[in-house]
Amino acid sequence: MAVRLLLGSAGSPGVTTTAIGLALHLPAPTLLVDAARDAAQAPLAGYLRGTVAAGTGLEEFARRRRMGAPFDLGTAGLPLDEQGTRRFLPGFGHLAAIDLFEPGWPALADLLRRTADDGTDVVVDGGRLTSVRPVEPLLRVADQVLVVTRTSLRHLAAARPVCDAIDDLLQNSLRATRVGLALVGEGMPYDRHEVAAQFGWSVDLVLPHLPEHAAVLSDGAVPPRRWERSPLLDAFRSFEEVPA
Prior knowledge:
alpha/beta, eight-stranded mixed sheet, Rossmann fold, 244 residues, 11 helices
């Protein structure tokens, strides 16, 4: 199975919604990891509607690492679906914890790599990329990197330095990491072909701009009528598998 790292740029929302959508529609089992460095805990407060996360997630991982105690992803995560085959590892609940976690990123990256090698798809919500250093360990183990962006000139201009930084970091990587774009709202105003030509990256996922549908994943909103037939879910279902 693969480790997929999703990143965004300033002013380009949609990373968490895309990560949740992929985690729910990739072939199970799947682990979704909130690795955003903002302590927003968006999946907990949104899709999971305020689920209590005490004793779970990255802060628990850091605590056990300091104690030299084992960390079990099976018990330190939360169920993302009713079957429990898709699980969620919460992120930071305190801003101070982000800086304290700094030495733990390589160990977390290695754990996620082993998890994928053992047969679980891993989707990492990396949030908005504001500094390249913290994301390096995750890039080192990723099979695929998706940069999520809207298609306006403003959003694409913000995504460009993110893609450039990723290209620079992967230049000397021994892993054949696939890089691609996830476009939200194709044709608003640029289409996938124009964007791919300008960035030199493939467009691996195209999501329709459907705010009411996206709110089900981002905010835990009540699903609209015919939710299971939503074009947004169809886009996630048709996502092309990337070999690990």
